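Can you give me the bound-state structure? Components:
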Amino acid sequence: MNEILDKIKQKYSAEDVKVQRTGLAFVTVNKDVALDAVTWLRDYEGYSHFVMMSCVDWIEDGKFQLLYLLHNPVTKTDVGVKTLINRDNPAMTSGHHLWKQVWTYQRELKEAFGIDFPGSPRVDENFVVEGWVDIPHMRRDFNTKEYSEETYFPRPGRETHDPATYMREQLYPNQPVTAKRKDNDK
Amino acid sequence: MPFTAWSKIVKDPVTIKDPLNREAAPRYRGFHDNDVDECIGCGTCEAICENEAIDLVPVDGIETKDGDSGLRPKIDYGRCCWCALCVDICTTNSLRLTNEYTWVDTDPDNFRFVPGVDEKDWYEKEDGWRKPVPNYHFYGQERVEMEELPAEARGDSFIEFVKGYSKDQAQQEADRCVECGICIGTCPAHMGIPEYIKTIRNDDMEEGLKILYDTNPLPEICGRICTHKCEDVCSVGINGDPLSIRWLKRYIADQVPSEQYHEILDTQKIFKGDTKIAILGSGPAGLSTAYYLSLLGHNVTIFEKLEKAGGMMRYGIPEYRLPYDQIDKDVDYILSLGVEIKYNTDVDAKMFKKLESDFDAVFISTGLHAGRSTRIPGSDHKHVFQSIDLLRQITAGEEIMVPEKVVIIGGGNVAMDITRSMARLQKIKYGKVQTLATSLESEEEMPADREEVVEAREEGAIIDPGWGPKEIEIVDGKIKGLHVVKVLSVFDEDHRFNPKFDEDNKKFFDADMVVESIGQAPDLSYISDELKEKLELGPRGRYLLNEYNQTSVEWLFAGGDIVVGPDVIHGIADGHKAAVGIDNFLHNKKK
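Here's the bound-state model for the whole set.
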């Protein structure tokens, strides 16, 4: 596996090469060569099985990180190819021509993160949610809690307690509270 | 149902019950389990849950007590998405997800339950998702170290050696708080700790100061020398360092100049009525009472026996821990609210009787200023001193005896204060330290704060605990040293003070001077016999007080060390309660 990783470093200037455990490694490459690296791994190094595609929202850096996870059924090893794309108007070259199932992943990423893959078949169709009008729901600036509060009704009979308030009620209910007395409080 | 579905009505179902009852993967995130004995009901699981799937509910058999809200999480599986954030944030690591994932029930209400309390089949399963420890944390595990002058730089001086946090350090430390509020219950004054820590994160010191003064009018002082019991129950401290709550409080108070206090705390103008209250003693309880009574519009006069205000905070705690200008900052603000203070006024029984007629109510907080003696042979020698007297003389700038060899008897914070003060004076006079402190209590049992013991040793003092004083040897009128025997135990099975010694295991500590620091007693000689008779006694022969620190003589309130023992923050809390009690009493009297 180390040999393959060395080659990726040379051919695609891969950085952040990390062997997670035996048979699993990750590399990060520039977005312009990410699909070239994936294609090379498939066609020349035996990573013929596309496991999955995923995304991480690095909101503080203004980036999305895409991950293509590939498997070599002969050597039973996996390589994850990571690449960073801009979070503003995010778009990535489509990989639908490499494996048909990439279509579905790209469609999911379009819906969940708003990343466009121009030319990917059915990429604009709903994936899980229908009639979604908010910002993509897997982006970290999507306020899940606010959405649940606005969208779903609370289950009848539910009741909760704030620990500090509950402790005051139980242990020291007569906690003095003193505010300045105003002239008209006489 | 679409019409096409009807065509499948006679076909076998596509989904079938798993015939193999297959076990999920070892780290699969299934139904919850909670070790309710470890859980403290801090509510971080509820706070982090994006789906609002968790409620905190009281549970039979689990009591609300110091460090435990008594609440436990109840999960609503109609909303849970098994993300396990609740497990990953759990401060006690008590919450986990088992790898059980199948459960069929026809009653939807059964899908709400309290893990670890309501009986479920899967608690036996060890597999599932737990917080991966170590090195996987949602909040910082280590506190931001407080910079201190090293022992060699502080040992020959009384300047403050704890430097205080910078803005970056304070914000970084404040960022570790999970805002559970468990600490509030343990703080005697029930300060709004998470709220003021939040103001540090938001860099809003004005709001921070307001929150401090809601419950504590001595923040500069408490920010330095509070016994910080709140930190003992900090939920972050269960699997890491507790928040530096005391130093964060100091940070807020240090940031705001005293000139801005009136504006920020909205006290430029205070309404004053015609009620008059006398306070005996200007320690933390007296000052706290004076502050809150002033806010409530009462006229307050403090009678102080000594030359300056502060009581034990000024005359007991050494300057290197609590600089006098910081005491002045807190005290001057309280006095600026129109509180009158009569210094050098020792109230006796006659004068106390007059106070009863001249004032509408009296609050006594005269503290514990009389040292207790060991009464061992030789303890009546003129070079055997009480720690409390020496500390008072050091503060007053009086010259005290500083011989080459000093032995201190005592293991509490006052003993450490005099040990470290004598060590400094020796270093200044002789360039070396030969101060030794010994106590009945073993190293583990010593009542002094751990940091005091550590720092005293850093400064060159010897702390040799676990010895009982037997005799002070005197030869030709001069002290030669202290004979001690090994202590086997200090308390008996009923936790009563009943020391047992091994008389054959002896030791001798060379000394030219011995300082006793085994506790203090009150001087209540200003209470006349006539008044004493009217005062009802409670358990342990103490004066009976109600929840507002009011005695059975309705115009007389009491608080501070004479009521709760030596502790600044307890005194402050007493003062606040008494102020509210006095206000209620006067209000009802008017009606």
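A couple of observations. The first helix of chain B runs from residue 3 to 6. The CA atoms of residues 473 and 480 of chain B lie 5 Å apart.
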